[in-house]
Amino acid sequence: MPATLDCPRCNELRLCTDRIYDAIIHGELPYGQNGITMHDESLWDSPDLTIRHVDLKRWMAHTYPGQRPAFLFSRAERVVHPVITVEAGQALLVEREALKSQLDLCRHQVQALQDQLKKQDAPTASCALCPLSDRAEATYLNIVGALLEVMLGHTPSGTPYSRFTSQEAVISALIAHHGNLMGIAERTLQAKFAQARRKLRSAN
Q1: Closest to 183 measured CA to CA, from 168, 193, 125
Q2: Which of 183, 161, 184, 187 lies closest to 173 in space, CA to CA?
């Protein structure tokens, strides 16, 4: 073959040709002349060298099972996965059944954990169903607002009641010590504190 060919897949063509000649030389692929199979090494360099279609197909299926060119294999043959043998298919089925059993076990464990979690959350859920009355909410807001005013306030002589100098400092301390509790989040505390201070001012 020439060093270069005017072909977009020249390198692939050269690789396939080299593989075919390698198989011929090592006795893996029958060859002949004019379609007649013979073992004549003088044909290796002859332009009359031929390979029968069935021989090339058999060699391709055995040596390169992942490659099934259309000129050798039908569409149905190319659709069927060439690498999966009967033994490999049986092994895949066994593995599939094992994975299915593991999946069923995991599902049962998840269901058991969910049932256990529902039992633990039952009191909280029942309390959540009880709406907070306006009177109770006003009471809580007054308490929160009064505590906040005291924490940020000063005595008549000007001495701070606490070391907190701002609402943000109070929020930061609450999050640092009780951030794992429901409602102890910066956005929620900002909103509740503002609501409590408004409630306290309106009451006064």
Answers
A1: 193
A2: 184
> pLDDT at position 81, please?
60
Among 10, 101, 23, 105, residue whose Cα is nearest residue 58: 23
User: pLDDT tens digits, residue range 143-177?
Assistant: 888 888 888 888 888 888 888 888 898 899 888 88
From the centroid of its chain, how far is CA 6? 45
Number of CB atoms found within 10 A of residue 117's CB: 10
Task: Report helix, strand or coil for 85.
Answer: coil
**Beta-sheet pairing, 49-50 with 36-37:** unpaired
pLDDT at res. 125: 46
- Sequence-ordered list of residues with C-beta below 8 angstroms from that of 149, at least 6 positions apart, any chain: 197, 200
Who contacts 111 (Cβ-Cβ below 8 Å, separation ≥6)? none
Q: How far apart are CA 25 and CA 36, in angstroms?
A: 17
Q: CB neighbours of 30 closer than 8 A, spacing ≥ 6?
A: 37, 51, 52, 55
Fill in the amino acid letter for 113.
L
* Side chain identity, residue 80: V
In one letter, which amino acid is 162? Answer: S
Query: Is the distance from CB of 156 to CB of 144 less than 8 angstroms?
Result: no
